[in-house]
Amino acid sequence: MPHRALFASIVLAVLALACGPGDESNAPADQPAGPRDPDVVMLVDDVEIRATEVEALAAAVAALYPEYTPLHCRRVVLGGTLLPRAALAARYAAPRREAEAASRRALEALRTGAARGELVPTAIQGDISGLGLAFWTFARDLVPGAWSGPLEQEGRFRLARVARIERGPEPRADRVVAEIVDFSYVPAGPTAEVAAAATRAAQLTILDPAWEEAVPEILKIRMGGARR
Fold it and tell me: What is the pTM of this model?
């Protein structure tokens, strides 16, 4: 399979996970305990980390950086994207729900034209190093001209409309040119300092010991990583 075709198939899997309906994967565990879903491999407070999402993004990393080992790809995804995102989601659970609902209403308004003049998109462009793994992967294979999302990132939900993709000599050099509308659920904005504070306040519980090595040691210490 050609390299770009392989990467496109990986991206489709990532999109299905990132933009799935509702909020079931991060719902608080407020119901009687039953058999554990084997796809849930760790918890950040009550926010679930699922193996399928980790592996989909790790496969995208591996396609871009074939020199990385599978374990390192998992660490990149967990340490750089999913664990900080989950910590913020856990700490700001109520405003997170409000931001997601607002982003879904805005997406409908943008698609129908009802938001004209009410929402002012921000123009952005960059490659994976500038835009980050999750958004760059999400945006890279969108149909230009159409609003898509919401994609949850650290402390925000994002809607995006891609203008064009400037293809580079290799996939990881591709540049995304897009417009975005963000819905932050962090009062002071989702800065690196806020994300670090959220991880220090969160409790990481590793449910599947096979995943323990995939968590960067600094986050195990900071988040009090423990097995259940």
Answer: 0.81
